[in-house]
């Protein structure tokens, strides 16, 4: 191979490797045992000749690495993730490195995990499973693990982009929930879906579902029974959910986060869970991954899973393929899938921000 391409982790499937090796690339996959590579580890990988890198969301891609990649003759970096809060795109641009991410292929898989967490929290699945395994079940009781009925309740979505909209659709169609959402952009296609589904239910003599685009995020927090967070992580969404926002949520609300950990002030959440036993949370991401804030693991009203929202075989192979194509495309001068340098905020159709 003419070009040297590095992947900082082994990735699922073999298609991504074939795509690269078929097109003049030599692929080197880092086999380092430790889960999170440091900047020094990656510098050593890049060495003095490297054309492109496929990296992971656990790595800090900033000034140091992009400068080194440039010096090694590189021109392309792709995150194997849709989120790229771990990437300093400004620094990449300064060194002429194109940056790619992997949207699209993980939309439904990630939304399904958020829906799973919503259901698991509503019906207390994890607590009930632990109870069963502990040998505590000694017969059916009218009050055993009573949870929330979703039908007719309101699902709140904060960030109604690709993933947020897919999640909303699942909860609305699957469980006949009403929608309230907050986003700077209008989710026109989602609104049309809810309207049409409401008409369908009405025609069948059922209570129609409704939608509302909230003027403020606080309206969603106050009105929704199940709230799922799907914003990008940046300065404006850091600790979006904090002590004050938790305080205005319903006492029996369910909060789900499969976006990025720092969107929630996790220490404040632990305090809130302690004093509100009926408030339940489903978390896929954490503020200081891989750690949890003290006390979180002791809360029965919290369900915690290790950042697995995009973890379906099809999606992970798709993410690897896209990441490889991003790097290959830049090296070979083909148009690339997605480049955060010029990617548009996702929406099916965009509209003006609410006044
Ligand atoms: C995973 O967290 C991703 O952003 O793809
Ligand atoms: C519960 O198991 C019921 O049959 O009502």
TrEMBL record:
Pfam families: 2-Hacid_dh (PF00389), 2-Hacid_dh_C (PF02826). Keywords: Glycolate pathway, NAD, Oxidoreductase, Peroxisome. It comes from the Eukaryota. This is glycerate dehydrogenase. It catalyses: (R)-glycerate + NAD(+) = 3-hydroxypyruvate + NADH + H(+). Residues 117-309 form the D-isomer specific 2-hydroxyacid dehydrogenase NAD-binding domain. GO terms for molecular function: glyoxylate reductase (NADPH) activity; hydroxypyruvate reductase (NADH) activity; NAD binding. It is an enzyme of class 1 (oxidoreductase). Its EC number is 1.1.1.29. Transmembrane segments: none annotated. Residues 16-333 form the D-isomer specific 2-hydroxyacid dehydrogenase catalytic domain. PANTHER family: 2-HYDROXYACID DEHYDROGENASE-RELATED, GLYOXYLATE REDUCTASE 1. Belongs to the D-isomer specific 2-hydroxyacid dehydrogenase family. Pathway: Photosynthesis; photorespiration; 3-phospho-D-glycerate from glycine: step 3/4. GO terms for cellular component: cytosol; peroxisome. It is found in: Peroxisome. It comes from Ananas comosus (Pineapple). One of its GO terms (biological process) is oxidative photosynthetic carbon pathway. The gene is LOC109707999.
């Amino acid at each position: 191979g003419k070009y040297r391409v590095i992947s900082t982790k082994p990735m699922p499937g073999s298609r991504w490797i074939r795509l690269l090796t078929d097109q003049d690339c030599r692929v080197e996959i880092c086999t380092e045992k430790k889960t999170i590579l440091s900047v020094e580890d990656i510098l050593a990988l890049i060495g003095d000749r490297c054309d492109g890198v496929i990296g992971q969301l656990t790595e800090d891609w900033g000034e140091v690495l992009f400068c080194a990649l440039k010096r090694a003759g590189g021109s392309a970096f792709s995150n194997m993730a849709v989120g790229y809060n771990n990437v300093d795109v400004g620094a990449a641009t300064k060194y002429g490195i194109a940056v790619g991410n992997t949207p699209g292929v993980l939309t439904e898989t990630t939304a399904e995990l958020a829906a799973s967490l919503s259901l698991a929290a509503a019906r207390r699945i994890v607590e009930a499973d632990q109870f069963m395994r502990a040998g505590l079940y000694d017969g059916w009781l009218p009050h055993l693990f009573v949870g929330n009925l979703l039908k007719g309740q309101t699902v709140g979505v904060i960030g109604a982009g690709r993933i947020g909209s897919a999640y909303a659709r699942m909860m609305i169609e699957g469980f006949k929930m009403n929608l309230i959402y907050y986003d700077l952009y209008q989710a026109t296609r989602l609104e049309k879906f809810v309207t049409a589904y409401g008409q369908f239910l009405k025609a069948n003599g059922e209570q129609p579902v409704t939608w509302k685009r909230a003027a403020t995020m606080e309206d969603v927090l106050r009105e929704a029974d199940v709230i799922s967070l799907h914003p990008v992580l940046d300065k404006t969404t850091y600790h979006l959910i904090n002590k004050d926002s938790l305080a205005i949520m319903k006492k029996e609300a369910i909060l789900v986060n499969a976006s990025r950990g720092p969107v929630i002030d996790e220490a404040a959440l632990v305090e809130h869970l302690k004093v509100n036993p009926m408030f339940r949370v489903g978390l896929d991401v954490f503020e200081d991954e891989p750690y949890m804030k003290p006390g979180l693991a002791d809360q029965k009203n919290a369900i915690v899973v290790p950042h697995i929202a995009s973890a379906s075989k099809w999606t992970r192979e798709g993410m690897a393929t896209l990441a490889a194509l991003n790097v290959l495309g830049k090296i070979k001068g083909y148009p690339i899938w997605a480049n955060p340098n010029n990617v548009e905020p996702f929406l099916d159709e965009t509209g003006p921000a609410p006044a």
